[in-house]
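Are you able to produce any protein sequence you like plus the matching backbone structure tokens because I've never seen that pairing?
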Amino acid sequence: MLKRKVKVVVISDVHLGTYGCHARELLYYLNSVQPKILILNGDIIDIWQFRKRYFPKSHMLVIKKILALAAKGTKVYYLTGNHDEKLRKFTDTHMGNLHVMDKLVLKLDDKKAWFFHGDVFDASIKHAKWLAKLGGWGYDLLILFNRALNWVLKLIGRDKYSLSKRIKNSVKSAVKFISNFEETAAELAIENEYDFVVCGHIHQPAIKKVKNKKGRTLYLNSGDWVENLTALEYNNKTWKLFSYKTRERVMKLDRTENVDAEIMPDVISAFVGLNEL
């Protein structure tokens, strides 16, 4: 496969270990690019919903691919989110080209870019974590139901339908939350004189110019690999939003890959310090 050279690639909200994760599509995308810098902007492994009995080979191959990129010279920054918050005990850990951090500031062509997941703005995470986790389980069930619905729609020749997008766009509080999230991130970036602010968390891909009395910034969100299948790419002084539109076109997994489907979940469980999963 011909690889595109990209200066910076940002992905977030992959949610490995859940039914909603489109790991095969992400693997195809990662095999199509050759980034100098790969930023994993939170919720890559969904530790909230992680279970040993469900961690498919495609999910493990995504982890293996990321480690392979780091081994071959790509700087990989893992910025922790709320679903992988247990990794925050490893903040400021550096292993070769792999760096675990809470946030990141980079200079890109004489401009300052600020990267962080964005859960810091979410009151439900801070004050009612159990409620947020319950919402996560409900979201995963909704995705499963949506997949079944789309399978039926495909059989009868109808277009796919996103229940979660429909709910987000129709519920006023959800629309307001997204708007407030973007506004808050942009205002903080302007206050701190960042040219770019790059988040994840809300599963809403975006590139928006924001201006107020104090200045201006470019707000960006990498979206997710559950619903939107999107990534941000920075090259030649320009940000672009990559969208994986043809979901059926997924790479065939190499059966000779040396990945132990039984051992890997145990390794992840031990690494993050979880009990029985």
In short: The chain has one domain: 4-272. The helical segments are 23-30, 57-71, 123-127, 129-155, 163-170, 172-191, 263-272.
